Amino acid sequence: MKSYSKYIIHYCFIASLFFSSCKKDLLDVTPPDQLSTTVFWKTEADADLALTGLYNYLYASGGGYATSQYTIVSWDNYSDDSYGQYNYGGGTSALRSGITPSSSEFVANYYVNNYRAIAAINSFLANVGKVLSGNKLTAYKGEAYFLRAFNYFWLAQLYGNVPIVKDDPFGMDYKNGLAKSERADVLKFIESDLDSAIAALPNTTYSSGHAVKSTAQGYKVRVLLFEKKYAEAAALAKQIITDNFYSLNPNYASNFYKPDQNNSKEIMFSVKYLLPNIQHQDVAIAVHLQRWKGELGTKDLINEYEAGDPRKTMTFFMPGDTKAEGWPFTGDLSVATPGKDSWIEGYYAVKKWLTPGLVNPDYGALDDNDYVLLRFADIKLMYAEAQNEAVGPDASVYQQVNEVRARPGVNMPPLPQGLSKDQMRERIRHERRVEFAMEGLRYFDLRRWGIAEQKLNGFIPNPLAPTVKTKYESKYEFWPIPQTEVDRNKPVLVQNPGY
Amino acid sequence: MKNCLQTWRKPFFYKKGIIRSRKSLRPYLLIAFSFLSSILYAQHIIKGRVTAGDSILTGATIQVKGTQTATQTDANGNFTISAPPNATLLISSVGYGNEEVAIGNRTALNIQLQSTTQKLSEVVVVGYGTQVKRKLTSAAVSISGEELNKRVATNPVTLLQGQLPGLQVIQGSGEPGNEGVSLRIRGVSTFSGAGNDPLVIIDGLPGNLTVLNPNDIESVTVLKDAASAAIYGSRGANGVIVVKTKKGKGAFSLQYNYNLGISNPTSLPDVISNSAEYMELSNEAYRNSGRQPLYTQAQIDLYRNATDRVKYPNHKWLDDLFQTAYTHNHYLNLSGGKENTSYSLGLGYTDQPGTMIGFEYKKYTMDLGLSSKVNKRITIGTNLQARYGDRKYPPQGSGDMFLSTLAQSPLYPPKSPDGKWIKRAYPNEQGNKNTVALVGEDVRVRSDDYYLQGNLSMDIEILKGLTWENRAGLNYNSFKSNDFRPVVQTYFYNDMSSAGLLDVGTPGLNVGRGDNIYTVYYSQLSYKKMLGDHNVSAFGGFQQEHNQASNLNAGRTQFTTNLLRELNAGPTNGMTNNGTSSEWAIRSLYGNVNYDFQDKYLLGSSIRYDGTSRLPEDTRWGLFYSFSGGWRISKESFLQDVRWLNDLKIRGSWGQLGNQNIGTYPYQPTLSNRDYVFGGTISPGYSASTLVDPGLTWETTRVIDIGMDLTAFNNKFSLTADWFNKYTFDILRTSQVPLWLGLNAPTINDGAVRNKGLEFSAQFRDRIINDFSYNVGVNFQTYKNTLEEYGKTEIGNTTIREEGHPLDEYYLYVWDGIFQSQEEIDKSPKQPVTPTPGDLKIKDISGDGIIDDKDRTYISGKYPSYQYAVNLGANWRNVDFSAQLYGSEGQKTYVTGWGIEPFRQGSVPTTDWRNRWTPTNPTNSMPKIYVADSYAPVQNYRSTYFLKDASFLRLKNIQVGYTLPTGLVAKAGMKSARIYFSADNVKTFSKYPGLDPERGGDGNYVTYPQIRTFIFGANVQF
């Protein structure tokens, strides 16, 4: 019996040894590859890390298939400029069957993208003061204000009335939901953020990828135009022009591919990519645009080009093009032929954004063209538009439009003198359409001009298929708030009218 | 006689074995009588008695081995037979295992037979130990390896289907090595990331069931209620499956099994393969969808009138995708025991090609069980299972293979006569990747999966009844993958012009390495004591688990050749890599007490205290416990007179279980890496994007179970029934945050789900004439699921989470026929799209004259109303027969896309579309044909049009076996030999269109089809 008690004593001993010898922290594990937020916001370097993190939201995914929201070429699928045969960006389904609060994921996608970025920005603004001070703090905050305005402007343009969130999301009480604000109030908020940014950002040329003062000014011109504050818009655009940081790139096409765009004095804001590690979302743009022809220009857009406007062939391939015209395919595809290799007859294959010299781009092709979101040419044409609306077609209006038309390599003749204000407006609208084709501006231009329904509803994208018509209702001026958002903010957040 | 019976029923013993009665003199008399007889006859007269557990066996057959001499036991289980000295008797009885007894020079024998299924003294493997079945107070069902292996399958999990009431087994696909089997014990009880998968215990420690070779399994027990699973505390909420692998015993035995399986898909959609018909339907669909038709009349005529069917084929792509697959299964087992050591070694090899081209699986298994009693108090043992899985599969998976094949028109073959891969016939056709080219160019992932699970045990008997058990286990999993995508040119068939690269994604190579190490250790003391009428058993212990996983992946692109598939063969430019690791740990203290009085009143209780690394320090410890009780009514004196009743027990249990299997670090706020390019270099960036709840704690499941077990009619009939009420609360869920918050929602404790249900199983076995015996088993389960707490209603694409309704109940527009005319459209409620005649008509549920979001409604069918299985068996002389029917009733699935919708990416319509709506065929059962690519009048609504009845009844298996006569096999040096023919998934009755109704859930209509297999096999024992 004694020996058995010994066993028991042994057991107790071993068991106690086991308990005590176990690492105390066996149950205290932390993620081995992710920093804890508790160690962040301790040094100045954290401000840089966090600021970089804010720009990363420019790589956010898109609607439809997996391109980015800022693969802006896809936005033309929403307009009369292009047809998205694979529904990139969600434009095709939006135009074919309309937009509903729960229809195709793009309605929710863009909304979520922007609010995610805004959350990070708000958190940045709430914390950056812990590690920075003085001018540096002001400058860093300036970038954050610009990015917040940038994101809210997307929301304001698409959905119009949205909740305004300015506080650190980690400290917010979100249980009771939030009502949306009127589009006008959202725009007011955007303006004030842009003003803060303009005051704080360095007064220099955009190049590294960081927003500068002129970037914020350029976006403010857009906002003011959207608000129809023409005089203010014209004044600010004029200031950018006279500040003389930018000039039109003498080679129009080289704004859109690497490495030439690195040296373009025309680019005022862009989404930056860098091979080999930061590549375009999904596939290289040459694959989705040129090989798969995910976007195809409409006959309507091609007809918009004036005779002899070289921007037509700088933006699109024509049937019969070969290597001489930059057609990238060889072998039996060496001659551009509608109906071949996913080129739908009745449309035009896109040339813009294609890096010259790329041969047979296909799966695995690599390119890292920056997506250009704001060009100096836009400032000039926005000036012209604003000035024309505010004052009328004075000489400065002519000058800015004509300079865009007279860019080397484009060399289009000046506008005829003696245009009325209305005629000038039409000329400027025309100029914007051809200058910025396949740059994602058309849909937003049509909407702010109030002619989206007139132009798009019943539009026949392909004259060879006249029964296929697009659908656009006036209520789309305000996209629906995603159904999930309405559900989660009941009853304070109500849907936009008409949905 | 009555008295005598009573005497025989009363005694109970811990050990199975010879039954002795303290009171009856009968055995002694028998012995004396036999002794006398042996003197009188040259042949010995052997007398004896056959019993099983507490019961005598009447009508058991006793045969002198190798002769025709045979007899049967009488009503008292007694027999008399004459046999030469040193002969061997073969004893058999329906429902019991056969026994061979060497007579030696004995003349009186007491023979104990083991029931093959319903044995009261049967030992059931439960948590951290075993329990005699009659003493069970919890809801646990088990099945023997022998029963399980009546069907033949390569994955043991699939064999569990229809065998154990309360366990729902859904086999998602027939893909070799990737069957997608989902196991649900008593329904879906949570919507949290913690999941609904039960815990699998192999030889006492958590492990992986698919690793095993089915032949190595000795028994499988499912612990369904809290009383049985609470001992597994934190990990038992979804029930526990306890598996015991084989141990050797007795003389050396060598067993070899072989079978050949011949498989084909159970059913495939019947698609249109006539090119001209396809083209005309396509044009009609394009016109109906307001789009430009693809084919000119001239092209259609080319195909219609062609005499050159090579140039203008009517190609059947599905015939290219599917093949007859031949599966070979080899299994070798060596087992035995000598002195104090027993051993069992099982080796298995399975070669299983897919019925879909491109899929291959080879599985090598080893199972080693060793146990040695090193001295009279110490037993050491080990169990070791190893598996090597060698799998090849197309990278996008079987669903993509299937839908891509359907997206090929019949207008062209996969390969031109001169060996070029074809993309389409014409450039304007829609389509998807050429799957035959994919397999032809070996675009397949090679996956190697090494898995080892093993444990060492040492049991020390400290005192009589007091045992100290120690068990340490290790599961090690290592996997490798090599995914190479070559550059393959494709062509258009009409003019053989080039059509770009085969869609394999980005060409290049990705390789992955991963490993997972799980260690577990427990040490427990267990104690058993019998004090007169009181029986007590108890155990308590400590357990610690730790898991560490890591992975490493690397990739390169732009290979200059398709011939090499290693990283160094590719350029370094643009190469990528990533890798990480994670770990978790659980520590637990547990204990269990069982008590019974006179084997009549039974009580049990379990307790477990768990701490997990997944939860914050202050809330990581959870206490789980259960209580249960049973009453063996048949032991009461007032039932002693009921002779037909062998045993009747009612039992009940209550307890709480935990669940914590969410992510690895759900409460820890972290930063995500967010880089950006500035000034031509990549700058590192971070941001926090997830909310966390620092007060996170356990998800808890509370189960009430009331059950009964009944055995009657001389053990011929048995019945087990259970009612349960399973309530899961504090569900670990992702909370709902508004989108404007811009953060990932935190994991929180919120929400509750209840499952109430009923399950029973019944068995009957009997013999009609001497040579013919049969058995019938039925089992049935049903449950009702309710989401009791959720917060704000959340409407998904096709489902809703709303309190008071089943979790994820369907929430859809109701399809109400087809618009027959413009007039009907004008009269009907305003649809949100602009329908034309032939489009779907949606019902105005709210009655407000407009179809909008308010017209969606609750539709039942997310969960089966009930499931059932019928098992039949029969033996006639050396021939055995078994069959299993399995049915699931009431579930529906929402399926869309390729195969069920026409012209999704150009996919071929099924022949059903010949009955489509047309102005001249005003049907109400199908719309007009359309292009299923955002065709708003059909696809804009998630309607009941796409909800299909997936109820089915399946003849799951039939098997006929023949055991070769012993005399014959003995000549070949064998102990026994059996050959059999088996057929799996023989026939399915269902209203589900086209494909097999058993599938993993909603989504794309096409998934890897279930397979029908004909199996020829042999088992030989030496």
From TrEMBL, chain A:
Boundaries of every SusD-like N-terminal domain copy: 27-224
InterPro entries associated with the record: SusD-like_N, SusD_RagB_dom, TPR-like_helical_dom_sf
Protein name: RagB/SusD family nutrient uptake outer membrane protein
Gene Ontology CC, one term: cell outer membrane
Alphabetized Gene3D superfamilies for the sequence: 1.25.40.390
UniProt cross-references to Pfam families, sorted A to Z: SusD-like_3 (PF14322), SusD_RagB (PF07980)
Domain RagB/SusD: start-end pairs: 245-499
SUPFAM superfamilies: TPR-like (SSF48452)
Domain of life of the native organism: Bacteria
Location of the protein in the cell: Cell outer membrane
Family to which this protein belongs: Belongs to the SusD family.
Keywords: Cell outer membrane, Membrane, Signal
Automatic annotation (TrEMBL), chain B:
GO cellular component annotations of the record: cell outer membrane
Keyword Membrane: yes
Predominant cellular place of this UniProt entry's protein: membrane
Membrane-protein topology: Multi-pass membrane protein
Location relative to the cell: Cell outer membrane
One Pfam family recorded for the sequence: CarbopepD_reg_2
Record keywords, A-Z: Cell outer membrane, Membrane, Receptor, Transmembrane, Transmembrane beta strand, Transport
InterPro entries the UniProt entry points to: Beta-barrel_TonB_sf (IPR036942), CarboxyPept-like_regulatory (IPR008969), Plug_dom (IPR012910), Plug_dom_sf (IPR037066), TonB-dep_OMP_SusC/RagA (IPR023996), TonB-dep_OMP_SusC/RagA_CS (IPR023997), TonB-dep_rcpt-like (IPR039426)
Span of domain TonB-dependent receptor plug: 133-240
Family: Belongs to the TonB-dependent receptor family.
Protein name as annotated: TonB-dependent receptor
